[in-house]
Amino acid sequence: MNSDSGAIGNVPVLELKSLCKSFDGLQAVRDVTLQIMPGDRKAIIGPNGAGKTTLFNVITGIYPATSGQVVLFGQDVTGWPSHRRTALGMARTFQVTSLFPKLTVLDNVLLAIEGLRRSKFVMWRFLSSYKEVYEKAYSLLEQAGFLDRKDLEVRNLSHGEQRQLEIVLGLASDPKILLLDEPAAGLSSGESTEMTAFLMKLDPRLAILLIEHDMDVVFDVASQISVLHFGEVLESGTPQQIHSSAKVQEIYLGTD
Fold it and tell me: Model-level pTM greater than 0.85?
């Protein structure tokens, strides 16, 4: 699938090559190799302590890799800091919410857009000079189905809506790949269903790599799943293959 990012044809959006991360001799991530193309929807599952969040932290540059490579749009970014990876087209959400609860939905989106720009927001400047920023904020909210809630204070949204809004903020940097760290964490079953529907209507050109414990979300959203166990990929396959794998059921699905 072609993308307008410059990642055309057969160039992966993200490629992990024998990626390893150790802490004081303990291998948290072991020899992980993964390839994500434009528009891919992939998930990483595994029991607590399997190394999923550590892997995300190495991919996004929060932790340095011990060995191996992180390649973004064909460029080796293994030694790059997080902000340079973001500028190239990677975005990530976190398990812990980072919204401003007393500000409106629109204000949260405006701040996310402005935070990425070289010129910072000046409160007393005429709003007309921020026409482009407002247009982008309205566009993001419209695409996400949040325009009707733009003037609500974030604290008045449901927990599920707040989690969805965090993903909208992640889209402010126009990423070509979005890393989602447990977007359904703490959601009720109804809110998880809404989150699934929300994720499935995101731009089909956007690549998504997802960590998630909610198997309903994983099996509905992802077309490929990798199972992480003690830091290494135990098995990869389609949702059907993973669901019917005796190995996977033994270490994860049957005990979660």
Answer: yes
